[in-house]
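Write out the 3D structure for:
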Amino acid sequence: MKLIIFSLLFAGFAQKSLAQKIDSIFVNLYTDSLKKGTYNYINVDARMSDGTYQPLDSNQLVFKSDGGQFFGNSLWVDAGFKPAKVTIMIYRKDNATLVSRFDMYIKLKDGNELPLKTEQQILDDMRKNKKKKGKNNTG
């Protein structure tokens, strides 16, 4: 008897989730530029007809670009890529409707910026600055 009740409840929940329709789709970018030589995740969320939000991925969407290659939701931009931007197009798989089209610029700096200081380096700098201030105040 418990198995029958569980099965009916499960079937009801499954039917309800299948009945939900996508009202709108949002692209949420974690950055304002793409990095070369790495995967750039493109986050897409759907607002469902019941008001909830659900993430969408390459099971529901087709991702295309005029530069780089998509692996799921992640766009790989080759390190040798020369253009300043990439145009990204996202389509629904169920009806091939264009959901979003936008340009993302390529990050200009190559990532070889100076590394962050270690905790010890910061403490050493603070000690040096404190000594310099002490010498300036005694004059």
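The chain has two helices and ten strands.
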